[in-house]
Structures are given as C-alpha cells and as structure tokens.
Amino acid sequence: MSGKESTEISDPGVPQLPKKVESHPEAFVTDINGDRGEKAGYNGENQKVDGPAANYEDGQMHRTLKQRHMAMIALGGAIGTGLFVGSGSALSTGGPVGLWLGYIFMSSIVYSMMVALGEMASLFPVAGAFTHYAARFVDPALGFATGINYWYSYAITIPVEVVAAAIVISYWDADTNAAVYITVCLILIFAVNLFGARVYGETEFWFSAIKVVTIVGLILLGIILMCGGGPNHDAIGFRYWRNPGPFAQMYINGGDGVIEGAWGQFLAFWNVFIQAAFSFLGTEIIATTLGEAENPRKTVPKAIKRVFFRLVFFYIMGIFVISVLVPYDNEDLLNGSGNAAASPFVIAIKNAGIKALPSIVNAVILVAAWSAGNSDLYAASRTFYALALERQMPKIFRKCTKKGLPIWSVVITGLFGFLAYLNQGGDTAVDAFNWLYNISAVTGVITWWGILLSYLRFYYGLKKQGLSREGFPYLAPLQPWLSWYGFIFLTLVMLFNGFPVFLKGNWDTSSFFVAYVSLLLFAICWIGWKVVKKTKVVPLDEIDFTTGRRELDELEALDRERFATESKYQKIMSILF
C-alpha cells in the first residue's frame, strides 16, 4: 500500500472516481494476507508485491452504473427463462404443491445468501466481490476456486440462454435452422457488452422493466383465470391440486418405472431444488457491478433490501399461479414436448382460450433470454477481470479500454457462447438445453455456498477481534443463524443433487457427470491452487478488516457530496428504484 495523500484510492472496486481522486485499482485487492506494509501487498499466491501494479492497464473500469440501473438489475436479474420456461420442467417433476414448496424453500435459502452478501458488499464494494471476499476472509485458494467457478457458471450459461431463445423462436418458426437464430442472438449479446457498462446498464434497465411488468401482469391474469374470469369462464380454482394431485411421483428408468407413495413424492420434491436453483441464478449478479456502480454504499443496501419482497412476489406468487393453472402431467411441459409452448404461462393462456397473448408472452420470454445472455457475459467477464487483478490470471486480462471495458476478459468469456451450436449436433433442442442448464445450476449453487462460507468467516472474524458490526452500511438480519441455515442446506443440495442416478436400476453415466463434474472442478481448483501456491487459511484473529476501509470511506464522503442535491425527478426515481 502507498502512504500517499488520503485522496489516493487503492481499491480495485474504485477504478474510476470523481475528480481530485486518483486510482490504483490492484494494490488493495491483492493485499489479502500477511504483513500490511505501507508499500507492500500480497497477491493470490501469498507472494509479496511491491507498490501498486496498476500501470499495466491502458484504462480502468468506470463507475457509470446509476442507481436506477442497479435497482433494475437487482430486480430483474433473476427473471429469465428459468422462471418463464424452466419452471415447466419443475412442475412436471414435482407436481403443483411440490413445485410451490420447493420454490418457497429455495427462496428462503437464496435470501439467506443475499443478505450475507449485502453486508460484505456494502462494506467493501470492490470489483470481483466473490473472489475477493473468499480470499480475504477464508483462503486465497478459495478465492481462486470461487472466481473460476463463478466465471464458469455464467460463461456456460450464455449458450443456455441462446439455446432457450432458439426454442422460443421455434414457436413462430420451426422450419428455419436454429443456427440462424443462435447467430443473431450471439451478435446482439456481443454488441451490448462491447459498448461497455453504461450501455449494458441501460439495456438491462428497460429489459428488466419489460420482464417485471410482464410477470406482474401474468400473476394478475392467473388470479383472474383461477376465478373464472377468462373467455371460457372456467373457474379452475384448485382443480389441478386435486387431480392429478398435489405431488408427482419419482419416475426412474426414463419414465418407465415409478417410486410410489410418500417416499416417491418426497424424492420428486427434492428433485425440484436443482431446477429451482437455476431459476434463481442471477439474484447475486448485482455484486458483479460493484466496481462500476455509482455511490455503491447507498445503492447496494437499497437493492439488497428489496430482494426479499422480490423473491416473495415474483417467484412465490408466480409459481403459485403456475401450479394452479396447469396440471403437472400436461404434455406440452418441457419434459414432454421441447418446443416454445413449454412455458406454463403460455399453456395456461392457451387453455383459457386467449388467442393473442401467447405470442406476446413468448416475445417477452425471448427478451428475457436475450437479457439473461447479456447479464451472463457481463458477470462472467467482470469476474475474470477480478481474477486477473488478483494475479490469478495473465495480466493481459487486466487490460481495459479508455472507456473502462475489460476488453480481453469480455472476448475470452464470449467464446463460450459458441457452445450453443452444440444444439445442432444433438437429437433435439431439449438435450442441449437440459445438459447446459443442469451444469450451470450446480455451479451457481457452489457460488452461493462460497458466499455464505465467506460471510461466516467474516462474522466470526469480527467477533474474534472484538469488532462491532454497528455502523456498517447494511446489517444482515438473524446472523449467524440465517447464514448457517443457508450454508447447511446448500451443502445438502450440492451433495444430493444427482441422487436419481443412485436409485436402483436408474444409473446413467451422463446424468452423473452433469450432476457432479462442477463439484470436481471446484475441488481441483481449490486444492490445486492451495498445493501449488502453498496458501493457508487466514486465522480468524488475522482477518484484515482495515485495509481499504479508509479509501472507501473517503469515496463514500465524496459520493455523499456528489449526490446530495436532488431534483424532484431524482427524488421520485429514488423512491421508485
């Protein structure tokens, strides 16, 4: 660290600041273990680094994401194909009540993760949040493994969303080769991300607004249809909860066998979890924007506080509507048909006799897939950039353009998008979608697990050193019990997500690989880095809660002056977003 004037910033999460403030983005993030000399830091290999190493970059990331961008990214980040389309597969797997309870349970787990993340992110709003917190509070090796895992999680999800877009387009045009639409989607996703964070934020603001308005409208429409307000005046009520029933049974041997009774229903219910996890991926994406967010200590807590209500309304109410309006044995659900009609919302609207709305909803689902693809490339590339800041990736990936775009991190991550063409090599679009979607879901769960582990170490480190959490920008509620709750159940979900392959007569090598390859890669990254670089777990009484706080406090003071004067329009926007 440098002992220069107090206006000098050494935090990677503060790459572009107001005038009069300089920036050395790497010196702070790499100082995660060992002595805290005035001019010395430690990189991800526990090796001493003399002085700031920010001179390599032609430019640095800029803080261009406004409060409304942050709010809508947080609000719409998890509303994608998982909710609009993937929920159909979960309904077919678990039945209406199994689906609803599964999503309620997963909502509570995701909430426990988000509030823990919110406390750390508000205190240390730095680039590469997940990587930095794991390395700083646990072990540099875990920081590397978490960063690689999160980067992979979103990089591999890019082709998932592109394939989902192709499935949706087939609702209107099943004759054109899907490769054409895959190419168009990839070009659009690259275009948005190559224009930088400001364009991404503005695009996501309007896309998220479309998704939010749509899901609210679908929930209201679902309640109306449930009460018999549709064109056919059929009051569905809870008909499908009674017949075919509240819970599905656990099917094995490709659907030829079934496990009957309460045990089979429980297994089907548990099987919903990994599908629910995919739907919730994206709730944590706001943390990847920390290095490019204006006034992060104000905008991040505000966005986090809305998470609980978003989860309750959009997911719990949305899934409730789905569970009521569509029987779980409907042939058009994703497990049965594999085309765009697989969206349970579209099925419900068609069954009600509403002719125009299915196409409108599918257009929104298409927007959701494109939006999710944009977010996937953004989140993954910023995580890869953070790994380079930690000196855990080649320095070329630290390179930013003069407009603040980590250009080579975007390029290397974007290459994953071409995996979408695997869709052309399989028998159906469903095969590619299910393979990629299952892999990405497991990697997301591992990331949440790492966040909660980092927070527990953060919490107990503060307690060990006699430091109070009072005065933090945001305090996670019910700690540490809420984090232990999420940590334990995410551990169970990771270990047992592939349990169907262990049932008698149900072994499938491909399914086993999909379920557990991510855990294997995570372990290899963690143990491999630890062995090769000889890193150590940071003792609780040596966890650093000081480095970078002064600079971030000064940034907060500057932001307070910068954003102090608000017009009536700004005040209204602040209330809304």
TrEMBL record:
Residues 1-54 are annotated as: Disordered. Keywords: Amino-acid transport, Membrane, Transmembrane, Transmembrane helix, Transport. Its main location: membrane. InterPro entries: AA-permease/SLC12A_dom (IPR004841), Amino_acid_permease_CS (IPR004840), Amino_acid_permease_fungi (IPR004762), APC_YAT (IPR050524). GO terms for cellular component: membrane. GO terms for molecular function: amino acid transmembrane transporter activity. It is a multi-pass membrane protein. The chain crosses the membrane at residues 70-91, 103-130, 151-172, 178-200, 212-231, 267-287, 307-328, 360-385, 405-423, 435-460, 481-503, 509-529. Residues 69-537 form the Amino acid permease/ SLC12A domain. It is found in: Membrane. PANTHER family: AMINO ACID PERMEASE (PTHR43341), ARGININE PERMEASE CAN1-RELATED (PTHR43341:SF4). This is Amino acid permease/ SLC12A domain-containing protein. It comes from Kwoniella europaea PYCC6329.
